[in-house]
């Protein structure tokens, strides 16, 4: 009984630490990502990791004012988006597996929860019935909704690579098998998800998001902004887990005490990988999906192509075997 | 008395849905007399209610109770319980298979139906589910007639009726024309499932959604479930065709939902998507049967029953729309708005139904998408890259259809629930009296329960708990498993997890936002003050019907190229029609002035087809 309880306590402790880490670092990653994109566009300024936290704090401290039209929807929708994004963040491992609910870390579940968070933010923009944010919200929905075909393709590709289709299963497999065989398809899958899911990778989508939330005030605005940041960070975490599953450890604190050190190492690795992911997204935004210079469906088409290519590569590899 | 009987000789393999245990022999269920009596009583009560319109208030509860009794009897019958009264002697007239359990969702639908037309359609669907091959075709024709609200609509279903006739004839000749039956079933269920490759949303192309449509879908599910086995090659080919057709139907139905002008027609489009999933599952079951893959067949059968559960979300949406129509007037999307504030409780229930239909976690729609994805991935492949590319393309088409469906849901939420009311009638809407709210809540309870515990629903429906353990023994296992058993989905745990995180966020919100947020009457943005029913101020930029569709089209093809394509298409159609008319005029010169009546042509075609079937049967 005691080991059972201890294992559960350990899982809860790790889950709390994981959630706190992700929740605290999300605005930091976004601030660094924007700094990197600005540097790539030629601007020269020192990084300010806490800049986005300050923006959120400023918005939170403003008095809350809400349009009477759709007031109940405006009051609920950003928090709903936050809840969905937090639930997805709880399922995507950052530095270790073995958290409660790791058997739920199916890619379709995570993608669905993130999609729900995205749609909740769109509904927030539509709630008051104002022309400008409503129009921007609908346009953002048209652009962002194309994650669905990508998600279906990616799930099938992962289903062929993995025994049970969950991220925890992927990490376990990475510890016992050679992942280099499926590394390229997995990287393509990660690229497809980042392209289709992360709004920060597209200047147009970023502007649309800013327009969507510009008429919100007070805590509603702060929560919506934070949910948007969390959404982007969880997509990046997901992509990172697909590309570098070996960086995640399977903790067993009671059996081997030195595992605590490896946990710290895994956290450091996660930070390094996330920095790299931020750089990749900033590069995508500046060099691949440049704002205003490409067709509206460019990003979705590119993501779809990446997912299809991943499937084709995987099947071709199997056929060659 | 044991009502489970061995499969009769000559009807071997008649059910497409396998029973719970993979690998077990297929079974037929003999209909008990008491179930037939209950159906007769319910039918008489429906007829009486239709003929005495003033007795709605008294007849409604009696009918609902009668249908619930039918539900209970169907469950008992399918689980092999001994029922008093013996069994029906005419096995050709009343002969159920594993699909008799479809009386359970049908009973729930009928118990919540309010109009005589819905009751009549439910009765016809009950005939389909419990009848033999001929009776079920008659019942399906009855449902088709109940769906038609105008004589013109009835004429459009003439091909469906012919296909039903041929289906009945073909199923009386087992083993002779079985290779044709999937195609005939496709044609016969086209109208019942609302399947169409047409993208038009004109009123004659898209009927408004009512309970009768759900009953029609259950009837179509029953027809598909009792499809006899053909040869392996024919089943394999039909399976592939049905899967591809299902993906295309899904996309076109989603597109119609996106373009529909009113809320009921949006729901018809969404229901058409569910119908497309039914077609896809039928194709997958045919493939599994042809390739002798019991795991895949069992998984497809379980998904089929989950789709039957998803129809309960349609029940909730239809009930909510009935009340909304009564409170806020016509459900045209150009007139609705702001219902989320005016009637918050009803809007929340309606949003719940939409969430279940959307396929987002954690409700039942998501479980079905998950199962469907696993089934598609486990399809037997031809080998090599060439064999896999069709699967990838089918998935891409399905995914685009899913995205369009989601956009249709965003649109209906944006226009109906968000914003401000646009008409004085809409501005005066409010939540209905508590009794009506309870009625809608009761209609929503089944879909919530099925979403959380789909394993229990499967155990209730056909003892198909989770593959390993069937019947009530499967209650302990509430996970949905993939065909190979490698992956598992725990919907109850998922719901608990989402509820837990939502609860934490709600507590944080309650603790952090102690200062009430001030509400202001509205934003003016420099524009003159608008009356409260002018929603977005600027009609050109409002979120009106049609805008998202145009945005999507702009994403796919630039507007000038699209205009050019449409112009060329219309011109080629016109030229083709001229060519055909000119050719037909020359060929049919002898027939000038002698026109045959449409019904005569139909009868001649039917007789010819029956002659063909009889000729094939003799061969």
Automatic annotation (TrEMBL), chain A:
The keyword Transmembrane helix applies. Keywords: Membrane, Transmembrane, Transmembrane helix. It comes from the Bacteria. The chain crosses the membrane at residues 12-35, 76-101, 107-128, 140-160, 263-284, 296-316. This is Formate hydrogenlyase. It comes from Komagataeibacter nataicola.
